[in-house]
Design brief:
Helices cover about 50% and strands about 20% of the residues. It is of the alpha+beta class.
């Protein structure tokens, strides 16, 4: 029964936590608005994730490619576009050091992301072009590194390079699993050349004037990038262009596949639990041989004995399933509470599917693994059973 409890609890946890993670990512995408188009390096299937999302490094997308899209007359409905590179580093100020993420981006970042600074300013296009050593800090970086001191005008060190703090970003919480407040924003070229030693970008985002023009703008971007990369055949695209809605669909597909895959792995313990229940019932049948013989002697049929043992087995596995479901639900609620405490927009989700799976699988385990002991009991000869010591 313990195996059934663990198996059902694991399935419920995987389904619930998976749904919570899915809601976290999708809520963040929705909050960014639907008028955004993302461009990632690397090709992808129509419904699949781009290769770069799977951790594969691709260097074919550059800042000049994105600037070509933004040239007058190329994509009429795009109002702003920004390029991105990202990394992690230890940042220090005097004798204090913290681990932070940094984003190298263009001066148009505020327009694309529809955010703003609360103090100071963001870097300019001139500073971006001149590889200026300036930095804009997220609110959490300010709290952790300066502890009440005024950071504007101070010099911080990232990877042993010096940067002057010129602005503080407004608090924005998390985006997916990325804490936007624990970020340092640097000019794109500065981050590329000085900190990362690369020439490519890892992401570009465009803001479109209205949702109705998303499809047209996506086609405009593809046409420009094919010209830039000298790609005559669209099937040979080495980039992926996705709208926010398409990104949500792709993420849904990926997270659903991952969720059910993990649930299937967790369900393996149900097999172990089922074998354990079967062995217990076989021992029970052996101990109750005389009882079964007596029942048969007073008129019980093979079907009656078969049904009795099967029902007993199903009752055991169903009880284990209910206990496992309760444990899984409590654990999932605890995970949701912790994630919310950490400021993530995490929904506590117990879906109807997980309830049906929990009860259905418990019944199925009882039925399948109860067959062998039930058949052994039903096949007992009443006289031999009554003679059993």
């Amino acid at each position: 029964m313990l195996g059934v409890i663990i198996g059902i609890a694991a399935v419920v946890i995987v389904m619930s936590v998976g749904a919570g993670a899915q809601s976290l990512i999708l809520n963040q995408i929705k909050s960014a608005g639907v008028n955004l188009i993302g461009v990632l390096p690397g090709a992808s299937e129509e419904e699949g994730p781009p290769a770069s999302v799977m951790g594969i490094s691709i260097t074919t997308l550059t800042y000049d490619n994105i600037e070509a899209v933004l040239k007058p007359g190329r994509a009429l409905h795009i109002v702003a576009g920004a390029s991105y590179v990202q990394g992690t580093a230890t940042t220090s100020w005097y004798n204090r050091s913290i681990d932070t993420n940094f984003t190298g981006t263009t001066a148009s970042y505020l327009s694309v992301e529809e955010t703003d600074v609360v103090r100071g300013r963001f870097f300019t296009q001139e500073e971006e072009k001149n590889m200026a050593r300036v930095a804009v800090l997220g609110s959490e970086v300010v709290d952790n590194l300066f502890s009440g001191a005024d950071p504007i005008g101070q010099t911080i060190r990232i990877k042993k390079e010096s940067f002057r703090v010129i602005g503080l970003m407004e608090s924005r919480g998390t985006s997916g699993f990325q804490n936007l407040d624990n970020q340092i924003y640097l000019p794109l070229y500065t981050a590329q050349k000085l900190l990362l030693g690369i020439n490519h970008i890892t992401l570009a985002r465009f803001r479109v004037d209205s949702a109705e023009n998303i499809d047209q703008s996506m086609e405009d971007i593809k046409i420009v990038l094919r010209e830039e990369h000298d790609i005559p055949d669209p099937s040979q695209d080495d980039f992926t262009v996705r709208s926010q809605l398409q990104a949500m669909d792709a993420l849904n597909n990926v997270t659903n596949a991952l969720k059910f895959f993990l649930a299937a792995i967790a369900a393996i313990s149900l097999i172990v639990g089922g074998v354990g229940v079967m062995n217990i019932m076989l021992a029970s049948v052996t101990e109750r041989t005389r009882e079964i013989g007596l029942r048969k002697a007073v008129g019980a049929t093979k079907t009656d004995i078969l049904s009795q043992i099967l029902l007993e087995t199903i009752a055991i596995t169903l009880a284990g399933g209910i206990i496992g479901f309760i444990i899984g639900t409590l654990f999932s609620a605890l995970v949701a509470a912790v994630m919310r405490y950490l400021a993530y927009e995490w929904d506590f989700v117990i879906s109807l599917l997980s309830i049906v799976l929990g009860i259905g699988v418990s019944l199925a385990v009882g039925l399948v693994f109860g067959l062998a002991p039930a058949k052994r009991a039903a096949d007992l000869h009443p006289i031999e059973a009554l003679r059993h010591e």
